[in-house]
Amino acid sequence: MTYGDHCENRRARALQNVSKNDVLLFWGLLWKTKKNGSDIWETREKGWYLLGALRVELILKGGESTKQLPKALRDRASKNAHVWKGAVLKDGCQRVFVGNSRHSRRFSRPVDMEIGNDKGLLRRSIKATGGRLLQWDKSPRWNSALRSCRAVLETNEAAAKYLARRIAKENPGLNLIG
Known about the structure:
The strands form two sheets. Strands 1, 2, 3, 6 and 7 form a five-stranded antiparallel β-sheet that branches. The chain has a two-stranded antiparallel ribbon with strand order 4-5. It is globular and about 45 Å long. The chain has helices at residues 71-78, 121-125, 142-145, 158-170; strands at 2-6, 23-31, 46-61, 83-84, 87-88, 94-99, 105-112. The chain has one domain. By secondary structure, it is α+β, with helices and mostly antiparallel strands. The two termini are 18 Å apart.
């Protein structure tokens, strides 16, 4: 797994502070669809889910070559859209994060973030800036707080351990922080 971004964008600026062994989480809104091909927007069965995680093994910056990497890492990094002809794009503040293959993956089963549940996964594991509790319908709103890339917890915190256990329950064999 790799992830690349243009880190001068406001949404991604905090990625400039990512270090080795940090964990990047990926989430999205999933809908239940009907098998007969009808319009997916008809359903009310939808939810926000964690879809994957990348534990950073290596960070390449704009202009850096993939040629100095071991073959396995070079092959993965070279497939990232922010790499062109064996080097990370130079324009702006480009970053490519290469995941540790043992601690990174697209989840085989998405993990429900339990939006709206005061005792659910999101409220128990992720906080707003300054450690404030995310809110469903007032500031700091959960959906605004998750829009930008940013640090949300430390791996030694109980919340991170809880999150890692919940992910492993749905995706056996994946230990994000162990």
